[in-house]
Amino acid sequence: MKIRRFKLPKRKKPDHAKSAGWRKRRLKYIAVIPSVITMMNGACGFMAIVFTSRSQELIDNILIMRQYNLTPFLLAAYMIILAMIADMLDGRIARLTRTTSSFGGQLDSLADAISFGAAPSFLMLKLVEYHLAYFGYEDLTPTTIIGRVVFFSAIFYTMCAIVRLARFNVENEEDAMAHMNFSGLPTPAAAGVVVSLIIFHQQFLLDLTERNLIMHSIFILPIMSLFAGILMVSRIKYPHLANQLLRSKKTLPSLLLIFTTGFFLVWNIQITLAIGFCGFAFFGVFRWLFGSIFKKKARREKLEDKS
Known about the structure:
mainly alpha, 2 strands, two-stranded antiparallel ribbon, 307 residues
C-alpha cells in the first residue's frame, strides 16, 4: 500500500513585496560632508536646550558670562542662529556636490525639529518663567492664566513646526524650480522670529532702566510664538531668499540690498535680526492680504463686464 505524500504549497510573495522587493533596502552610502553639517544643525539645537535648562548654573560657574554681560538665554539664541547657518549650508553643499538624497532630506527634517521646533519654544518658555519669577509675579504653572497661555503657545509652536516639516517631506519635489517658494513660513524663519526677539530683549531692552517696559516686553514672546506657529501651517507663499538671490544674475538694486543688509548686521545685529525675521513673516501676510483683495476686485470687474 503506497503512502501519499502531500506537498505544502510554496509560499507566494505578497503583492506589496513584489513591487518593493523581497528584501528590505539597506542604506549603504551617505554623503559625508552634508550629513555632518546637518548633524551640526541638530547639535546646535541640542546645545541651545542645554544652555536654557542650566541657566543659573552657567551664570554661577562661567566667569566670561559675567564679564561680558552674557546670559544663558542669549547663548542659546545664538546657538539656534548657528543652526540656521548650518541648515543653509547643508542643502547648498549637497546640490553643489550632487549628493542630494532622501536620507539627507529626512536627516535635515529631524535636525530641524530639534533646532527650530523644540529649542525655540523651550527657550521662550524658560525665559518668560525666569523673568516672571525675577519681577515677583506669580509662579508660571499651568494652573494660572498666564501660565496656561505661555505653556500653550510653547506646545502649539512645537507641534506646528513638526507638522510643517512632515508636510514639507510629503510635498517636496526634486525639481529645483519647485524650491523657489515655500508654502507656509519655513521653520528656520519661524524660529528666527522668536529667537531674534529674545536676542533683542537680552542685549537691548535689559540695558534700559524702565522696569515696566522690560516686564511687559516679555509677553510679546508667547504672542509671536503663536503667530509664527499659525504661519508655519498656513498656505501663505514665502519666497526662498537663498535660492532666489544666488540662483542667477541679479540687478544692481538686489546687490545694493544685500550690501545694505550686511552693513546693518555689522552695525547692530540685534535690531537687524529682529526687523529682518519679523519683517519677512509679516511680508508674506501682507502680500497674501493684498493679493486676496486685488483678486476679489478683478472678479467683480469681470462679473460687471459680463453683465
